[in-house]
## 1
Amino acid sequence: MLIHRFKSKIHRVKVTQADLNYEGSITIDADLVDAANMMEGERVQIVNNNNGERFETYIILGQRGSGVICLNGAAARKVQVGDLIIIMSYTWMEADEARKFRPTVVFPDENNRLSSVMN
């Protein structure tokens, strides 16, 4: 049996840009993506702490060390620059593996730079 399990998250990161005219996705500083055990093209759920919006999109890698968090396309309507969001990913795994699995949680600082990682 497969279980759909929480895999990783970037917790309370600040939106730096919103680009309505882009074709879609979220651009994330590559340092944060790597630290969170995520990858380019991966499906993610976004939760906006400021307005309660929840939606899904996919990751585009942003410049390393830039702190960029940019919602693109239609998702740009669900955020304002400065909003705090949580970016989460999930995976499928066997039930035995799921019981032992520890997700990765990234805590960025106020400039969206890596502060600490828990797993």
## 2
Amino acid sequence: MPVKTYKPTSPGQRDRTSTDYSVLDKVKPMKSKSRILPKKSGRTKGKICVRHKGGRQKRLYRQIDFSRRDKIGIPGKVVYLEYDPNRTAFIARLHYADGDKRYILAPADLKRGDQVTSGEKAPIKIGNALPLLKIPQGSTIHNIEMQPGKGGQIVRSAGQFATLMANEGKYSQVRLPSGEIRLVLSKCFATLGQVSNPDHKLIKLGKAGRSRHRGIRPTVRGVAMPAGEHPHGGGEGRTGTGRNPRTVYGKPAAGKTRTKKQSDKLIVRRRK
């Protein structure tokens, strides 16, 4: 997917880059699979409860089929490749042989007219969803379930992919984009291929307005605030965070702050 650049006709255009959407179809989203996404803007009863949010563009949420378990063995034809404002990846509109229509995450190199299917007997082909136990070792996968039947939860953003390292009985070893190697139940489904739009990481917004359209408000550093506004604030001249960096709520903000969770025992090798 190429990246578009612009002539420097203004300061905002000078460093701006954007995704070239010419390969996508300009069609309206399916009414049965879309709904208005409510604007919460980080407020509860009008008061800010989540900082740095508010004022985004209106959106329609497209309902994505992350599971595909109720379409096992039913072939689906890729009719359109579409833009989705709610995620960095592109989506594909499928027309199934039984007449149903759904959206899925579009893998890279998936084309209009391709056939995709799901289930244990699905062929090893980009876009097909299979249990990890039925996928060859070394395969590139995405949209991986953490619990059987819950639907894909990880490796869903643009250009991301995981690698299936080994199948060992009840569990499979998966190397995630962070470098972490993790055990996942072999019954969990995953989709073959890499997520579409791999050039998303090269995009530069170019101006503050493009962040505001996404609902992202400005962020002020804690050390630049008054003492009453932030634990890092106050002092004469430039001051650092001290030995104990804190969030605005006084919680530790550096070092090992992750709480112990039950899933730790499934980590074979931690991320880099």
